[in-house]
DNA sequence: GATCTGACTGACATGAGCGTCAGTATGAGC
DNA sequence: GCTCATACTGACGCTCATGTCAGTCAGATC
């Protein structure tokens, strides 16, 4: 087969080219969803030929995993351990700073946030397991912190694991909606405050409270 | 083409046959996920021929939509409006009963719960919109209730819509984990109590609380 | 027992998306 | 200016799920 002249563009820094493809894939996944995006879509968006894609990634799944891995790493970095002994910052301050940092990462990576919360699950069983492991790590970390907090009397009684689920669920939905609704980066402060006060005090003020509630509810000292 | 004897099984009540196919699809979707399940898988599980499937459903998407619609309807029915004037039941009781009923529906339909939370999003853009509408309705309903509650002084200050997101997110994650971990139906009571006390009081007891918190935090009553 | 009707079947044609690979352009080294 | 290495290209062949439809079967009707 003789090939017509055709435009080529070799000699492009490898890292740069990979970045082009990653970005194209990320944007398409966020816009149309993983399953609705084909390799042809990605290469068209990146402005490279089909074959080029395979020079950089094994297949569609691989580029997806790559994107998620990088994002998960960023999230992990944003999570800081709370140290109750820190004399410079109160626990409350640390907790708030933590929430703020996590929200910051997600709001600065809207495409990835959307992908993580909508497409990441259901790609294939092996990946689901991998993702579950990541979630478990986060849940585990938070659970430990909560247990520790209960020991110190700064976290109310209750099954720590369940509290962790409730917290993470609330945060997830908040982030998903913030990104979907296109809230600006500035709203991070407000969201942080809302979540913090939710975790501190809930919002129901129905008088008697939990009647036969087994949990002893200790007032703010 | 002459056909060999082959086993047939006509004369099966239409509704019954449709139910067979629906059940097969539901179980497979829950086990392997929507995208990993083929029509061939479904008909094999249901014990009917490929062609039969198309007598009852337009395509794979249609049976999925059908399943989700039925489930959404059940959920909608489980949600009751809170009436503060009810002299027989306190608001606290009503809220708890509501949570309990919703958890009950999800725990009694584990397969659908898993499908709804893992595969429902990302099937195709049109269905995503449909699903978002359902979510919006639920969020809207809760938002209204919270606003009303704020007027009556039984819900703390704060953007009601955000509070709705936090609540629904917490509930979603709790349900998902409960189903994934295979918690028994009996745990519904415990989960209800945990969520209720979380909504009532949060769990952080970090002393000073929200420092420059804009929200006035009114004690019970 | 002939005919009709409606449920059901499964082989087949189709096509979307995938991964490959022989071939081309470009610049560096000699 | 020839050769080599490297980055890139895109037509091609293949797989596999899909939707169809001509044909079979069982029971009802007459």
Topology as H/E string of chain A?
HHHHHHHHH
Please give the most extensive interface between any two protein chains, plus how many residues each contributes.
Answer: A-B, 68 and 68 residues
Which percent band covers the strand fraction of chain A? under 5%
Main beta-sheet annotation of chain A = none
Please report the distance between the alpha carbons of the first and last residues of chain A: 83 Å
Number of helices of chain A: 9
Task: Calculate the mean pLDDT score of chain A and round it.
Answer: 89
**Class computed from helices, strands and strand pairing of chain A:** mainly alpha
Q: How big is the Rg of chain A?
A: 22 Å
Give the overall silhouette of chain A: elongated
- Helix coverage percent of chain A: 55-70%
The stretches of 5 or more residues of chain A where confidence is low (pLDDT under 50) are 1-6, 209-221
Q: What do you see in this structure?
A:
The structure is a homodimer of 221-residue chains. Chain A is an all-alpha fold. The first copy, chain A, has 9 helices and no strands. In chain A, helix 6 crosses helix 8. The longest helix of chain A has 28 residues. Chain A is elongated, with a radius of gyration of 22 Å. Chain A starts with 13 loop residues before the first helix and ends in a 20-residue tail after the last helix. Chains A and B meet through helix 5, helix 7, helix 8 and helix 9 of A and helix 5, helix 7, helix 8 and helix 9 of B. The structure holds a DNA duplex (30 and 30 nucleotides).
